[in-house]
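User: Can you predict the 3D structure for this chain?
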Amino acid sequence: MESLRTQTTTTSFSRWWRQVLFVPLLHSRWITTETRQRLSAKVTEAERGHRGEVFLVIENHLPISSAYYSSAHDRAVELFSRCRVWDTEENTGVLVYVNVCEHYLDIVADRGINAHVSPTVWQAMCDKAIAGIANKNTEDSLTDLLDEIGQLLRHYYHLEDDPAGNELSDTVLYIK
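Assistant: Here is the predicted structure, written as structure tokens:
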């Protein structure tokens, strides 16, 4: 897995071919309905006690139509926008993006939480999760990452009771 922002945005014929030749059945067996349900429950748990929002996206591969021009980081930023993670009341949305084909994990956080958390902290969290995923502990690594993000949000945006409720769905977005 690659880490936060280590991919450059350049055209890549090899990236495009990886997407075309990717066989989800061989690489995505761990993404069962039960796993997605457990991760969705973990997102709900990670959102307790603070005003932030956590959104998890797992994607098998980049869209073939844009894979030549766009990296996995570009896709994470695109989904951050498309899923309106940026549109939380206090700008405390955090998107966790996993691309199975590219072996890539990224965290894209809104400006509210980025005012408090340095890029090196996000990078360290990504690196830790990537190390766990490399050791075939994918679900546990993502669970731990969601816990860490929840703790970080509680540290800066603590709130016992959130009367505004949940601004984003807690359900894992799985893009086949």
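The chain has a mean pLDDT of 87. The chain is about 45% helix and 15% strand.
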